[in-house]
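Running log. JK asked me to keep both predictions on one page so they can be read side by side. First protein, sequence followed by its tokens:
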Amino acid sequence: MQTRFQADLAAFAAFALFAALGRRAALGLCALLLCATCHALEINQANVAELDSLRGMGPALSAKVLQARAQKPFESWRDVMKRVSGFGPVKAQQFSDQGLTVNGQALKP
């Protein structure tokens, strides 16, 4: 997952190219770059930096996630919410909206 800095840098580069390449080419490039920043982050594979990059996660919660995952991989969103203190339905929805998945699945509302 790209950091916020990398995403901002990519957006800046795309807009700089807007002036150099012309409107159509630059808009196409912008669309590609924006799509590249919107990919999923699997909770069973994410490292501490990737988890910390999620708004609302923070170092304490990401440490709890990694500690619980070290016992065994998460099976579902319900499993995450059950095993990680402070990871309730509201946080789960917030993280899912940012691209976090559990076994490839987004949280279903």
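And the second, directly underneath as requested:
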Amino acid sequence: MTTSASSPPSSIATEASAHQLAACYQERWEAETGFAQLKIHLRGSGRVMRSRTPDLVRQEIWAYLLSHWALATLICAAATAAGVDPDRIKFLATLRIVRRSVTDRAACPR
């Protein structure tokens, strides 16, 4: 798909096939789902970052990204073991299970 500087924006969509547009839409939907998992479920809706310096904000962002990656890895491993598509395992349900297991008194040895 090529465009020139003089092409109107509406011509860009007409140069792509329906299959290409559907693939782009699917990719965008996957990205939006990931953003929602991070912003709404993992961090919490309406919550702001606690860090007050740029370095600590970056550290907090990396912590959220690493936590999201760990949960996604857990979901993929569980899906593989169960022989199902990873998209069938809900992110929020997995997050709740992990939070319960981490905060459960039995999880902390005395």
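Observation for JK regarding the second prediction: The mean pLDDT is 84.
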